Amino acid sequence: MKAFPKFDYQGIEYDLTHLTAFSCDYIQPAKSDGTAEKRYRCIIEFSTHCFTRGENKRKGETLSDIEPALQYITAKETRIFCFERYQVSKMLPQIMREISRNKCYFTSADDKFLTISVTDKNGKKVDYEIYFSLQRAKSPKHDVHIYINSAYIRDGDYKENHGTKVRRKPVGFFVLLHNTLVNKRIKRPK
Predict the structure, then answer these.
(1) What total number of domains does the chain contain?
(2) Residue-range definition of the domain harbouring residue 115
(3) pTM for this structure?
(4) What is the pLDDT of residues 73-104, one digit of tens each?
């Protein structure tokens, strides 16, 4: 599985190997109704959005405003290396290994979900939003491909719906896995 190349800035090397795709099995316990335990073999892959950011269009920022040494360039796009996202991304592999213990929520896009609430380096609870999509895996070694589209700490300036926080609807992680595997549309809870 291909790793992201390291990022160098002002003589400091930022290793990104923690974001190399990896396999993870999630085991859904047997139910009291006699439903057997179910194992989902997943491949988890990360995007550059887990450690980079886009331009702040609200503030009129463009790439030309950004020091070229901070630009992270791929074949698809150029983004800005984000030291905060990078630091917090070190938790992502473990968070994803344990995601079945957390609540997932629908976002505005039907194929993306998020999980939140981690402790930052200062011991403070913060909203770490992890947006991911699921599809049936193409490899016979895996059942479901989980792609982390983006992950970042939600800053205090964020306002949804003109200042009121949108109430997100939870969905079970095993529901997401099962429905993806059997090609069943995942319905947004009402």
Answers:
(1) 1
(2) 39-181
(3) 0.87
(4) 998 999 999 999 999 999 999 999 999 988 78
